[in-house]
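Task: complex structure prediction.
Instruction: return structure tokens for all chains below.
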Amino acid sequence: SQQGEEDPQALSIQEGENATMNCSYKTSINNLQWYRQNSGRGLVHLILIRSNEREKHSGRLRVTLDTSKKSSSLLITASRAADTASYFCATDTGRRALTFGSGTRLQVQP
Amino acid sequence: DAGVIQSPRHEVTEMGQEVTLRCKPISGHDYLFWYRQTMMRGLELLIYFNNNVPIDDSGMPEDRFSAKMPNASFSTLKIQPSEPRDSAVYFCASSLEGWTEAFFGQGTRLTVV
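Output:
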């Protein structure tokens, strides 16, 4: 079964709007990461947040982590058509390998 | 570094045939992972290596699947015999530590007919 589940499964917004994706997980984690996958390509790392951190920023990305609720959110501000992709959360549970969620498909309309 | 390199990019084979997927990790990365991606099951971890040693192969679906890492710069994932349900995109990834940023290859799209 998936450790992480993203919500929503699909999201369609207009260019310039903000996109928020959520990830829930089941077991305790050491860190949580977000990845992007463009159609037909491999996954690309976006950001890593450790279990003792609550918020992290990287450019137009903002990630929050609530370990009490076992959830994380990824906010992309001022979205662009180039942000169209699938976004995955991945957790490190101490297994020394990442477990990926089911992903959110983001479509940004120009 | 050119990143993680996988070959072939696409593979079409007939049921029952042997399939070998190849991966060259980023130099200096101690961890190598094989993932499989399908619409139904998402991204599944099949097996991972640390310093060329298989650590966890609990995700390997059946005995038809095997993986090797003879040296730090090369790994293979073999399916024998292949079945239509093995059709998927297979990704190789590497990282410095198991919990750090993983770098993915472009994947091999396998179609078994």
